[in-house]
Amino acid sequence: MKIVLTARLGRLAVVCAALSCASASGQESKTVIGPTNIDLHEGAELLKSGEAEEGLRRTLAGLEYAATPRDKVAGMSNACAGYVMLERPEEALPWCNKALEMQEKHWRARTNRALAYLKLGRFEECEADLSLAEELAPGARTVKLVRSMLLDATDPVTPQIVVDDGGQPVDEDQE
Prior knowledge:
By secondary structure, the protein is mainly α. It has a domain at 38-154: Serine Threonine Protein Phosphatase 5, Tetratricopeptide repeat. Helix content is 67%, strand content 0%. It has 8 helices and no strands. Helix 6 (107-119) runs antiparallel to helix 7 and helix 7 (123-136) runs antiparallel to helix 8. The longest helix has 23 residues, at 2-24. The radius of gyration is 28 Å and the shape is elongated. Mean pLDDT is 82; it is low at 1-27.
């Protein structure tokens, strides 16, 4: 019994020593649960749910204290998306441009900028960004959606609807 108790106390001492060693050297062990930038996180969630105005406001607030390059690029891309959602594509472009300056292969920023170009009728620039976004994220649903919007704008399908009214010819003069 005494040997088992000593072994348990020995393991506990090792764990305690490891913990105090980290704090004694000035390092703290931290566990971060959830997003580190609440405004960027909440802004993204609001944008996803269609609340563009509040989502953009929270995103811009989060960008004020974005600490990592990843947060900055994501926030700028989301700001671009928010302005596009608010039908303000000319204000969207600088945000996507800044994001792409930091990370040129950010497919979401490319897609957002393509959509801004589409809304401005700048189809060649839209196509260029969209082609690169398709290379970077083949199969991404949002990229496919913007591609279909571009096709609708540049090569609309003319519907050819034929209504079969039972085979009876209609005499237009009798109507």
